[in-house]
Amino acid sequence: MRFGTYFFLQAPPGHRHADIIQRELQQMVWSEQLGFDEVWLTEHHFIDYGLSVDPATLASAVASRTSRVRIGLAAAILPFHDPIRLAEQLALVDIISGGRLDVGVGRGNRPSEFTGYRIPQVESRERFDEAVQIIQRAWTEERFAYHGRFFQIPEVRVIPKPLQRPHPPLYQVCVSPDSIETTALRGWPMLNSILFGGLEQVVASRDRYVTTLQKAGRSPAEIASLLDHWGVSRQIYVAPTDAQASPRPRTPRCGTRSRSASSSFPSGSRTAIPRCSRRSGPWRSGSRRSPGRGSWPRHWPSARRRRWPATSSRCARSASVRCSAG
């Protein structure tokens, strides 16, 4: 099992965006120093929920500041990108990082983002599928041409190629049952999120994924390998006891959800903001040993609390964990 941190670059009211971005970059460096295995970066547009508008640029900044930790995208939203340009950018990041890049991709799910990019959301699946084909061919073929509904590419040579061969590991964000099955048929690992839900979501996703792999004829060894690279993210707060952990993250989690939901809809929308969870206990793996190298602070943010701005998000951190086949 491998542990990582997941960065949204959230922008609470009253804080300069430039300060937030620099603060989050410093936290990514600290993640490596504290022994985490991975840092994961998201992509959002036009909302305070996340300032990571260009994950390739952000990944390059992380690569230049670190030397060991793997750098993952969770995820690049393919309908918003020119696939040739993105293939070039990510190949360059893979080289700069010394082959530490993991590429998660997704279709996107926020209407406001599709509106801002002037792309009908109903086209997201087809645009995503075409972009996946183009990026993989750009990384693995010397020259190629592509003729699809949305992308017409004359014969082209895309360079440089990624350092990792045949290309950086690919993952797909899975939310719907359909996306889980599609990911399994592609032979990619899943990226799941349970930021506000329960573990039963993860179990159901795993079961559907494994069933689809079995129906597709994957061997037990192949299934075990894919599950070993399965990524799951959730918000955590580390404390010695449940009693100490439970009350403290509730306000930050409510603030996170409220900003996310309220930013997704036009002013005056009557869409309800879902009720926040009342409980958030310590995060434990199968053993009590600190993950990775180095030591884990008793309260995860406390080791750097003086450097955090006084915002409601300071007590909570999203984290990712790579699950074992078991």
Descriptive account of the structure:
The protein has ten helices and ten strands. With 326 residues, it is α/β, with parallel strands linked by helices. It has a single domain, classed as Luciferase-like domain (TIM Barrel, Alpha-Beta Barrel). The strands form two sheets. The protein has an eight-stranded mixed beta barrel with strand order 1-2-3-4-7-8-9-10, surrounded by six helices. A two-stranded antiparallel ribbon has the order 5-6. Strand 5 and strand 6 form a beta hairpin. The protein is globular and about 60 Å long. It starts with a strand and ends with a strand. About 17% of the residues have low confidence.
Summary, kept brief:
The protein has 326 residues and is of the alpha/beta class.
What is the fold's blueprint, element by element?
Blueprint: E1 2-7, H1 17-33, E2 38-41, H2 55-65, E3 70-77, H3 83-96, E4 101-106, H4 111-116, H5 124-140, E5 144-147, E6 152-156, E7 170-173, H6 177-186, E8 190-193, H7 199-215, H8 220-228, E9 231-236, H9 242-245, H10 250-263, E10 317-322
Parallel strand pairs: 1-2, 2-3, 3-4, 4-7, 7-8, 8-9
Antiparallel strand pairs: 1-10, 5-6, 9-10
Observed structural traits:
326 residues; alpha/beta; TIM Barrel; 8-stranded mixed β-barrel; two-stranded antiparallel sheet; 10 helices; 37% helix; 16% strand; globular
